[in-house]
Specification:
Helix content is about 50%, strand content about 15%. The chain is elongated, with a radius of gyration of 39 Å. It has six domains: about 210 residues, Hypothetical protein af1432 (Orthogonal Bundle), CATH 1.10.3210.10; about 160 residues, 2-Layer Sandwich (Beta Polymerase, domain 2), CATH 3.30.460.10; about 80 residues, Beta-grasp domain (Ubiquitin-like (UB roll)), CATH 3.10.20.30; about 80 residues, no CATH class; about 90 residues, no CATH class; about 80 residues, Alpha-Beta Plaits.
Length: about 750
């Protein structure tokens, strides 16, 4: 960028005298900062673009009344000095306000300045639209959506630095509420992002200014007390540094050593955590030792300095932090120790190399200057990719990072309600999924919606940033085909549940309609005859049959006539029908003698040695050998064996007492019975292994299936076992309850 700043200044009108004066200095500073990275025509092209926008009134002011041009220059200079910004970032910052005011489009930017700059401007525009949705920035979903919208990590860096500059220029703005809102957002959102990227100096500034604007009295009080004791503190730092410096020089190390007071926000946090005033906060300052050493000696020389410090001053082992052996996920490397200095005062000492210090001050962008230096320890995949890009950059980190997309949330979408509430859903989620995510009742009555002001169907697939308004109708009910396009488990579960409930209600209604008709015709309804008729009509389930009656797909009068005709036909052609109603007990040995001796009536004896009996074990309760059981003659003529405590036992006893049969076990059994247990407990390591170990050691039992689910620290499992009898089962349950972490074991069926 050339030196013709006067030409640009003259073209930028509508500025106050103070703004114009400051602008000259900012522009000159930008020319110096970009001298090495700018292309020859950049300055002239930018002057032309900005002048046209200003002349058209499209390069105005933000909501605080600040000139967007002055703010853009402040941000551009800060990017250069604090994070080693490249040419494209600087140009994107200056062009963004023009596109924001719709004086130019990203397509025009792309044709004039290239795709990379256009994409960054586009990312900044997307973020600006996000803020217009009125979402709560304190939500974690908002932070995720912000990252997804930005797409390029350079956009996030621009946003952080821009917010820092904004915080600096709104100090005395008359609208206190607006200033506090910005301060809260800066602390919660941008300070945490700066920390994530290793921009610690920016993070501290954002936090301090946030405290200043939200609690000015506290900020002023701490600042005043720090200032009053500055001379005393400086003298103490020198007394601490002097002997350390001499010892390190004697060891042959090249280094810088300096003391710094901790940030006001950090001190305030310590005061809150320790519930003390500033007079009782001892580690108000830190000593930093920065060693000049080649890459291969970094760790060695840092530990040499550590040994020197700890030999001279007593360390506090509990406050020792080694981020050299295992760096932080944002790339931060340093040794932190707290020692008892002169007069017994606690002093924090930070030991790091020149490279580590540059990374700590400028964040990950500093890695490019030291390519090939790779930190050890576990990094998350996303940040590891960032660092790989930075460490292999030949032309500066931001050049290679243009192709790095922040797709960490590409498997999720984020959508807003009209009120600004933000919801996170899996990729592919539909408008209907969104409705069920808000509330199940809302989902069941949804008929469609408006997405970004446009009417959309239930099947519309959401995109991040969509604002969704749900439209409902009291007459709407879930449909079977909804299951074909919803993707969230909450929606699928609720739809299935509602469909099942409706099906059962319809079946009950159909049964009542049929029973009323039979009663009016004075016909006695025989369940067995009806079951055979239903089967003959082609129905596999009685519920389907009764549903068709309720929906009037089957006429009750016609069906009644069919029943009469079918019953008469069966009676006229009845041959001797052998069924469970006419069973003969095959008794032998002690069983027969026992029964005769007891003088009891007919008893059904079941077991492996009983032949010729048509009986089955009921699936509703899955009786096993030893359970107290009874027999029930079903409509199909088959005896079904139920446990006495079966959920259906009460209904059977009340409605069909004449079809119940006293039943007992034969005394001989060889097969294993299937039984399902529910196990609930803490999600401890090894709990599944311990449970299965107990089962496998039991000779009379076997594990057939296991299904487990764990969330929020809670373990829940369903175990399907094969057991020989109920005594074996009772013993197993007792043993499983002794496993560490198990809270409850119960038999499901």
């Amino acid at each position: 960028m050339d030196t013709h700043n006067a030409e640009l200044i003259n073209e930028v009108n509508l500025l106050s005298a103070d703004e114009l004066q400051g602008l000259r200095g900012l522009y000159a500073e930008l020319l110096r900062n970009t001298r090495e990275v700018a292309e020859p025509a950049d300055a002239a092209d930018l002057r032309h673009a900005i002048a046209k926008a200003v002349a058209a009134g499209h390069y105005g002011r933000d909501k605080f009344g600040n000139s967007l041009f002055v703010r853009a220059l402040l941000t551009a200079n800060a990017l250069c000095s604090r994070v080693s910004a490249d040419r494209n970032m600087v140009i994107a910052v200056l062009l963004y306000p023009i596109c924001l005011s719709e004086h130019a489009t990203t397509e025009q930017i792309s044709s004039l300045w290239g795709d990379d700059i256009a994409k960054m401007v586009g990312g900044l525009l997307k973020v600006s639209t996000l803020y217009q949705r009125g979402a709560a920035v304190e939500s974690e979903n908002f932070r995720r959506l912000l990252m997804a919208f930005a797409e390029d990590i350079r956009v996030i860096i621009i946003m952080i630095v821009d917010r820092l500059m904004l915080m600096k220029i709104i100090n005395h703005h008359p609208n206190e509420k607006l200033v506090k809102d910005v301060a809260y957002e800066a602390n919660y959102l941008y300070a945490s992002l700066a920390h994530r990227l290793g921009l610690y100096a920016i993070k501290s500034e954002l936090e301090d200014m946030s405290l200043k604007y939200t609690d000015r009295a506290t900020f002023t009080s701490i600042a005043r007390q720090l200032n009053e004791r500055k001379n005393e503190r400086d003298a103490y730092i020198q007394a601490f540094i002097g002997p350390v410096k001499a010892k390190l020089e004697a060891m042959g190390l090249k280094f810088d050593i300096k003391g710094r007071t901790k940030s006001i926000f950090s001190i305030w946090n310590k005061m809150k955590k320790q519930k003390n005033d500033i007079d009782h906060i001892y580690d108000l300052f830190a000593i930093r030792i920065i060693i000049d050493t080649p890459p291969e000696r970094e760790k060695t020389d840092c530990w040499v300095a550590y040994s020197v410090i700890t030999d001279m001053y007593q360390p506090n082992p509990s406050r020792m932090k080694d981020w050299i052996s295992i760096p932080k996920s944002n790339g931060y490397e340093s040794l932190h120790i707290t020692v008892a200095g002169p007069e017994g005062k606690w002093v924090e000492v930070q030991i790091r190399t020149r490279r580590m210090d540059l990374v700590a001050e400028k964040g990950l962008a500093a890695h490019w200057r030291y390519k090939g230096i790779r930190s050890e320890g576990g990094l998350d995949a996303w940040m590891n990719n960032v660092r790989d890009i930075l460490e292999t950059a030949e032309q500066g980190p931001m050049v290679l990072m243009r192709n790095f997309k922040m797709d960490v949330y590409d498997k999720e979408v984020f959508a807003f309600t009209p009120k600004g509430d933000l919801y996170r859903l899996p990729a592919g989620a539909t408008l209907l999924d969104f409705a069920f995510n808000i509330h199940s009742k809302l989902g069941c009555t949804t008929v469609g919606g408006r997405v970004n002001g446009k009417n959309e169907k239930l099947t519309y697939k959401l995109h991040s940033g969509d604002t969704v308004e749900i439209l409902t109708s009291s007459s709407q009910v879930p449909k079977q085909d909804w299951l074909n396009f919803v993707v969230t488990s909450k929606a699928r579960s609720k739809i299935r549940q509602t469909l099942k409930e409706r099906e059962n209600r319809a079946a009950e209604l159909g049964r009542e309609m049929l029973q009323r008709r039979f009663k009016n015709r004075k016909i006695e309804l025989e369940e067995a005859v009806l079951s055979r008729l239903v089967k003959k009509l082609g129905y596999k389930k009685l519920t389907d049959f009764f549903n068709d009656i309720a929906s009037e797909r089957l006429d009750v009068n016609t069906l009644t006539e069919k029943y009469i005709a079918f019953e008469q036909h069966e009676q006229s052609h009845s041959a001797t029908r052998v069924s469970a109603e006419e069973f003969n007990l095959q008794q032998s040995g002690a069983d027969a003698e026992s029964q005769e001796g007891s003088g009891s009536g007919d008893v059904l004896v079941i077991g492996n040695d009983i032949k010729g009996m048509n009986y089955r074990f009921a699936r509703c309760c899955n009786p096993i050998y030893g359970d107290d059981v009874f027999g029930f003659i079903s409509a199909e003529g088959v005896i079904k064996i139920h446990r006495s405590d079966c959920p259906n036992a009460r209904n059977i006893r009340e409605r069909y007492p004449y079809r119940m049969i006293t039943t007992r076990w034969s005394g001989k059994i060889g097969a294993q019975f299937a039984v399902t247990l529910s196990v609930v407990g803490r999600d401890d390591i090894g709990i599944v292994t311990n449970i299965t170990s107990i089962i496998t050691k039991e000779k009379a039992a076997s594990l057939r299936n296991i299904a487990i689910d764990s969330h929020d620290g809670l373990f829940q499992g369903h175990l399907t076992l094969g057991v020989s009898d109920n005594r074996v089962l009772a013993a197993l349950i007792k043993k499983i309850k002794t496993v560490k972490g198990v809270k409850d074991v119960s038999r499901i069926n």
